[in-house]
Every structure is written in structure tokens, then in C-alpha cells.
Write a structure and sequence with these properties.
- The protein is an alpha+beta fold.
- Helices cover about 20% and strands about 25% of the residues.
- Among the domains are: about 1-85 and about 140-150, Chitinase A, domain 3, CATH 3.10.50; about 85-135, Thrombin, subunit H, CATH 2.40.10.
- It has helices at about 25-30, 55-65, 95-100, 155-170, 195-210, and strands at about 5-15, 20-25, 45-50, 70-75, 90-95, 110-115, 120-125, 130-135, 145-150, 175-180, 180-185, 215-220.
- Strands 1, 2, 3, 4 and 9 form a 5-stranded antiparallel β-sheet that branches. Strands 5-8-7-6 form a 4-stranded antiparallel β-sheet.
- Helix 5 links the parallel strand 11 and strand 12 (about 215-220).
- The chain starts with 5 loop residues before the first strand and ends in a 38-residue tail after the last strand.
């Protein structure tokens, strides 16, 4: 694949030493290894070859890969997430750990913890001591990838759509072009995303690097609120003749006993 090519990749990622499946884009493989996640949509990874967004061993393999060809490779820690650094492992008191944990019941070996703004993994908890590993969870592991490039994106419009979805996790973008300028109507779901503003800045860089975009415009469409049905606010008394009455328990027109 040439550098800058946008591709869809199906892959299975294993721990090469244990053979355990770590991640997959294929639903049937997840079910086979009892790692299926209900509600998840299993789709190929969309990536830009040579963009540096993947581990170096995988990036190098993609540059040599061909479409529709099954590829299997092992990647040493140095070309993956690095060797485990002992300086990134800290032992602290359980009291200090509990001061940084909202729910002590959520603690478990191998689980994530955040200590003074640093994200780590709890690797030991006993005798009043806790060990926190701040290395990447896959540091020190030799990885095995089984993958296939299932699609090569060709058209400019298709490239833009793929990049938008891959970098936001959102669907439903409406894209139009005026020369090199791109206008993008963002989906309604993105309007409520607190990270949307930062995503837009990143998308502009991605689009300019990948499709040589000129001006990039994001259009937010805020639909009008649907007016309530007139009957919903009208008086509940059918004998009431006051058109301005909005009281549902109105007793106008009723007879006193």
C-alpha cells in the first residue's frame, strides 16, 4: 500500500505468548473466543497507511500489504508498545490508594486506577500495600496480528466520509464539495458531544493531510422544536366555552348540586 492510502482493515489481535485474543473487528471471532460484546457494532478499522496512528510494526506491515490477502505477523515489544519500564511501577500504601478511589469495591487486580492524574493498572493489593503499573497495559508483550485489507478507499467523497466516521465514531455526515473546499453537515448526535469542538480541529488537520482539503466548513443544523398538539393544552371539560382556558380540571359549565 502506498503511504496515505485509506483502507478498511479486518484484524484479530492476540497475545503471541499465551494465544489469548485481545481485540478483533470480526464478530464471529469474538464469539468463538467468548469475548463478544452485546450492542457493539463490529466493523473494519479505517486507517490511513503510514500516518503514524498505529504501532510501528503494524504500520510497516501495512505498507507492504496487498488488498484481499490474509496476513499474519508477530510484533516484538520494541515495535509495539515498548518494553516494560520498572521505573513506571510504583508501590504505595492502601490508605493512599483509597484516597484516590471513589468506590473501593471497584478495585480489582488488572483494573484501571488514577493516582494524582496518572492512569495506571492495579497489579498487586495485599498486606496494606498496592502496586500501580503505569506502563501501557500491553507493554512487554509480543503481539500477533491476523489481518486483511478488505477495502481500499478511492473516491474523494468516500475518503472524506470514512475519515469523518473513523475519527469521531459518528455516522450520518452530509458532505458537499466546492472545488477543494468541503462543507460538512454534522449529525444531530454530534451536537450533544462535549468533545465535538476538539474533534473538529483534529478533523480539519486530518482532511487537509489526507485529501488536500481547502476550506473546511462544519454546519450545525438545529431542528425546530415540534409544537405540542393543541388538544394537549386545551381544557379537559368539553362544555367549557372559554377558548383561553388551559386548566385541565376546569369545572366551567358544570351544575352545582
Amino acid at each position: 500500500m502506498e503511504e496515505g492510502t485509506i483502507v478498511h482493515v479486518d484484524y484479530d489481535l492476540y497475545n503471541a505468548d499465551s494465544g489469548d485474543l485481545i481485540e478483533t473487528t470480526r464478530e464471529e471471532v469474538a464469539k468463538e473466543h467468548d469475548l463478544h460484546q452485546e450492542g457493539r457494532t463490529y466493523t473494519p478499522l479505517v486507517c490511513v497507511v503510514g500516518a503514524g496512528n498505529l504501532i510501528s510494526g503494524f504500520e510497516d506491515s501495512l505498507l507492504e500489504a496487498e488488498a484481499d490477502k490474509d496476513i499474519s505477523l508477530e510484533i516484538a515489544p520494541a515495535d509495539a508498545y515498548g518494553d516494560k519500564d520498572p521505573d513506571q511501577i510504583e508501590t504505595i500504601s492502601v490508605d493512599k490508594l483509597l484516597r484516590h478511589v471513589r468506590d473501593p469495591k471497584s478495585l480489582y487486580i488488572g483494573g484501571p486506577v488514577s493516582i494524582e492524574g496518572r492512569q495506571g493498572t492495579l497489579s498487586y493489593l495485599a498486606a496494606g500495600r498496592a502496586r500501580i503499573d503505569y506502563n501501557h497495559p500491553m507493554a512487554g508483550r509480543t503481539l500477533k496480528y491476523d489481518y486483511k485489507i478488505v477495502k481500499v478507499i478511492e473516491g474523494k467523497e468516500e475518503k472524506v466520509a470514512a475519515l469523518l466516521e473513523a475519527n469521531t465514531g459518528q455516522e450520518g455526515f452530509e458532505v458537499s464539495f466546492d472545488g477543494d473546499d468541503i462543507s460538512i453537515i454534522v449529525p444531530q448526535t454530534m451536537l450533544f458531544d462535549p468533545n465535538a469542538a476538539m474533534q473538529k480541529f483534529r478533523l480539519v488537520t486530518v482532511l487537509r493531510d489526507s485529501v488536500e482539503a481547502g476550506k473546511v466548513s462544519f454546519v450545525e443544523v438545529h431542528e425546530p422544536r415540534v409544537a405540542a398538539d393543541a388538544d394537549d393544552s386545551s381544557c379537559g371539560n368539553p362544555s367549557c366555552e372559554d377558548p383561553s382556558c388551559e386548566v385541565t380540571d376546569c369545572d366551567a359549565g358544570s351544575e352545582e348540586e
